[in-house]
Design goal:
CATH topology of the largest domain: Rossmann fold
Shape: globular
Helix content: 40-55%
CATH superfamily of the largest domain: NAD(P)-binding Rossmann-like Domain
Number of helices: 20
Distance between the termini: 31 Å
Largest sheet: 5 strands, parallel
Structural class: alpha/beta
Bound molecules: D-mannonic acid
Radius of gyration: 22 Å
Strand order of the largest sheet: 5-2-1-6-7
CATH architecture of the largest domain: 3-Layer(aba) Sandwich
Length: 487
């Protein structure tokens, strides 16, 4: 998270006289207009354990559980940050409370109370206690694509260093998959019921992939546990959506002015939020319908529409937009050529690959997404969306390209953002810049040699090195040169 590089309002060096810190005890000091938890937090039980309580989780799922808690106190959340202590340091002194700003035509500010505590990877014993607590029903995650340790075939990558290390010794797991396998094995050993593992990450078939990865991992260590997981644990698919830019100075300033208290880590998002979950729970499912969540038999059509249209367009805006000198999504959308290109990509190239769920009109969906991108209240950095390209592009664009090729469709436009991503890497390599990507070292080592990158099966799968990509890429680079010089 780049967030904590910003001047922190809690830092005495910032020169400001800080208001008291947000916490249970100081809630009565909140400014009157700030919405606060509509339930008694001391009566909340932690029915959920969440891996990866970053900005997206706090803006999205935690807000939905916050709304649910007003009706049912069993669904508080224990957060687990496996790889950093920053969230724990910011939120534990605030009793898990934080502010969520809704940036839209009709703005809003509310305090979310569903996260009750944050544990870190070094508190292994406490994490295990939380995973085996009798009140726990759901283990959820936002650990991003890379947290799943999957190979190009979507199955567990047994050669991944963290997986190899956990397969050899699971006493203090390094991977999220290792943690799940170990916690579930312990639930079985203690005679506890299974649990629902609810993936909230942006990847196709997220629940199924996670389930297969955990079961594959467990079978390599202990086939009886693997069978128990198959019989007692559910892994529903889910689609999640809400635009959540990283916390920035501007948000800190606004929150400091309006809250009446000091919050070490406020979060922001657009007002729109959507969560569609496959109705496949162990035992009772939480009544998240009260928070606008949709339960359905088949999440695939929702998820494909969201990943391919919204996220595909986002990544396109990021890589082509950066090349054209833009900084934010809203700014890139004022670039007439780019906005028109993205809209055409969505309507003409992506839509033919989708089977929309009943009741979803893709034309309206696209117009809504484009309107959300234009939201003037949100500063969503293209550089944030550009993170982890090697992990995101397979889900966002390569699947669409594959489907278009299979049906004899046109891919020249779809290839342009891939070419822009390759340029983004070459530019970083040439200027000695770092990029955020688990494959950063290899990508930057390849640098200008884009064909070496396109030959990587862990990104391009069966299309790696294929002339069907190489040829249109070659002409896309020329288009990009024109686009750049036209700015
Ligand atoms: C974005 C997403 O950062 C990114 O890659 O495309 O986080 C996007 O804002 C969300 O998926 C919207 O739901």
């Amino acid at each position: 998270m780049p967030d904590l590089d910003l001047p922190n309002p809690l830092d005495p060096a910032s020169g400001e006289k800080a208001a008291p810190r947000l916490s249970t005890a100081t809630i009565p000091f909140l400014a009157l207009e700030v919405k606060r938890p509509a339930y008694n937090r001391s009566g909340v039980a932690n029915g959920v354990l969440h891996f990866g309580p970053g900005a997206f989780h706090r803006a999205h799922q935690a807000a939905a559980f916050d709304a649910l808690l007003a009706h049912d106190p069993r669904w508080g959340i224990t957060g687990v940050s496996l790889h950093s202590t920053q969230v724990a340091q910011a939120l534990n002194p605030q009793d898990g409370l934080y502010s969520l700003a809704l940036l839209d035509e009709e703005p809003g500010l509310q305090i979310i109370g569903s996260l009750t505590r944050i544990l870190t990877g070094s508190q292994g014993k406490a994490v295990m206690e939380a995973m085996t607590s009798p009140e726990l029903r759901i283990i959820s995650s936002t650990v991003t694509e890379k947290g799943y340790c999957l190979g190009p075939d979507g199955r567990l990558d047994e050669q991944h260093p963290d997986i190899r290390s956990d397969l050899a010794d699971l006493s203090s797991p390094r991977s999220f998959i290792g943690w799940l396998a170990s916690g579930l094995a312990e639930r079985r050993r203690r005679g506890l019921p299974g649990a629902t593992i609810l993936s909230c990450d942006n990847l196709t078939d997220n629940g199924r992939k996670l389930g297969a990865a955990v079961i594959d991992f467990a079978s390599m260590r202990d086939p009886d546990t693997a069978r128990w997981i198959e019989d007692h644990v559910r892994f529903p698919n889910a689609m999640v959506d809400s635009i959540t830019p990283a916390t920035d100075q501007d948000l800190r300033r606004k929150v400091a002015q309006s809250l009446g208290l000091t919050d070490a880590w406020p979060i922001q998002r657009e007002r729109f939020t959507q969560w569609v979950i496959e109705d496949d729970f162990v035992d009772e499912r939480p009544a998240l319908d009260v928070a606008g969540v949709t339960f359905t038999k088949d999440v695939h059509p929702f998820e494909a529409a969201k990943l391919r249209l919204l996220n595909g367009a986002h990544s396109t805006l990021a890589y082509v937009g950066l090349l054209r000198g833009h900084r934010t999504v809203a700014q890139a959308m004022t670039d007439e050529w780019l906005a028109r290109f993205v809209e055409r990509l969505m309507r003409e190239d992506i839509v033919p690959t989708l089977k929309p769920p009943a009741g979803l009109d893709l034309d309206i969906y696209i117009s809504d997404v484009l309107r959300r991108f234009r939201n003037p209240a949100i500063e969503h950095l293209l550089s944030q969306i550009a993170w982890d390209g090697s992990q995101k592009l397979p889900y966002r664009l390569l699947g669409t390209i594959r489907d278009r090729l299979a049906s004899g469709g046109e891919i020249q436009r779809l290839i342009l953002p891939i070419a822009a991503w390759l340029r983004f890497i070459a530019h970083a390599a040439r200027h000695d810049l770092t990029i955020t990507d688990p494959l950063a070292d290899r990508l930057l080592a390849a640098g200008d040699d884009w064909q070496a990158i396109v030959a990587m099966p862990e990104i391009f799968g069966d299309l790696a090195g294929s002339p069907v990509l190489v040829q249109p890429l070659t002409s896309s680079f020329k288009t990009l040169d024109d686009l750049r010089s036209a700015t």
